[in-house]
From TrEMBL:
One of its GO terms (cellular component) is cytoplasm. Residues 131-317 form the ATP-grasp domain. One of its GO terms (molecular function) is ATP binding. The keyword Aminoacyl-tRNA synthetase does not apply. Transmembrane segments: none annotated. This is ATP-grasp domain-containing protein. It comes from Candidatus Limenecus avicola. Pfam families: GSH-S_ATP, GSH-S_N. Keywords: ATP-binding, Nucleotide-binding. The keyword Protease does not apply. Coiled coil: none annotated.
Length: 332
């Protein structure tokens, strides 16, 4: 590290490292490029490169750079750095939140977040399940149960007629099924998702408005963005499953949705979960994305004819400076 500018470490997904070049579908690449454009010194790492030596958290990482509008990294041997030597860390690998993910989070038990700003704090990520913990906000959550019991699940479906069953630690809609009282494969679905009654899943009352898609509400710190995108169900699917322009439409937040999101943002910001995406239908939160939420920058730009990356970066930089004590809290 030689720059007098702030140094930033991004912990990204293995797949993103493998295909590290600017791709406007990938939120991490947008943010990395924008920081490089602003002359920050940026390094990248993956979960498996995190480590401790005694009680000192370290990482193997590569320096990123920009050339001709694209992003690259120096593909030499990775350098080893103490994580607290970075000014800012963005911890944004994708789920599943398995034992390797949890162990990577645990490395940050040895990072002083008063010294290094960590977004999102992996200790908080480890303790906050994106499905399970929407029940911190019961007034905003659809009726649901979390259980491994087939009988409890079937009783819930009988009571509510229509339901969604989902694993607790997956992403991109993986393992999510629609259930109703006519589903002939319900026993097989439950058996597979619960690992024959050993693994807990979430079952939610089906929200009828979800047939028209769900809104992604975007948050940084305590700021709820006005920009909002609706994700539409894919072809022959009940849920959003295809990242294609025809499955997005621009929309707006209702006053009730914004008030709801602000209450959630205030709570999560207090526990150092700063970058958050809420999936909402019928005024209810279906999921609270805190691991590596997508900000759908390309789609918002395309539908709204704007540069949402500039709006996002303003709030991220404000957040960083707020946490570093450089600006008063009223600015962010």
């Amino acid at each position: 590290m030689t720059s007098l500018q702030q140094t930033i470490l991004f912990v990204i997904d293995d797949l993103e490292l493998k295909y590290f070049e600017f791709n406007d579908l990938v939120t991490n690449f947008w943010i990395i490029k924008e920081f490089l454009d602003r002359d920050y010194e940026v390094f990248i790492a993956v979960k498996s490169g995190l480590m401790t030596e005694g009680n000192v958290a370290k990482t193997l990482c590569w320096q990123a750079y920009e050339k001709d509008g694209d992003i690259f990294y120096k593909k030499d041997e990775p350098k080893k750095y103490v994580i607290e030597h970075f000014d800012v860390v963005f911890f944004r690998p994708d789920p599943p939140v398995d034992i390797d993910y949890i162990n990577a989070c645990s490395v940050f038990d040895y990072v002083d977040t008063e010294r290094t700003v960590v977004i999102n704090n992996p200790i908080a990520v480890k303790n906050f399940n994106e499905k399970f913990h929407l029940n911190y906000f019961p007034e905003f959550a659809p009726e649901n149960i979390v259980t491994a019991s087939a009988e409890e699940i079937k009783a819930f479906v009988r009571e509510h007629k229509k339901a969604i069953i989902k694993p607790l630690n997956q992403c991109f809609g993986g393992g999510v099924y629609y259930l109703d009282t006519e589903e002939r494969n319900i026993n097989t679905i439950i058996k597979n998702l619960t690992n024959n009654g050993k693994t807990m899943v979430m079952v939610q009352r089906y929200l009828e408005g979800a047939v028209h898609g769900d809104k992604r509400i975007l948050i940084v710190g305590e700021h709820v963005f006005d920009e909002c995108i609706r994700k539409l169900p894919g072809k022959d699917d009940f849920k959003f499953s295809e990242h294609s322009d025809k499955y997005f439409e621009t929309t707006h937040l209702t006053a009730e949705e914004k008030e709801m999101a602000q209450k959630v943002a205030k709570h999560l910001n207090a526990v150092e979960l700063y970058m958050v995406g809420l999936d909402v239908a019928d005024g209810k939160i279906m999921e609270i994305n805190v691991t590596s939420p997508c900000y759908f920058i390309r789609e918002i730009n395309s539908h709204n004819n704007e540069r949402f990356q500039d709006v996002l970066m303003e709030k991220l930089i404000n957040l960083i400076e707020l946490k570093q004590g450089k600006i008063p809290a009223t600015v962010c």
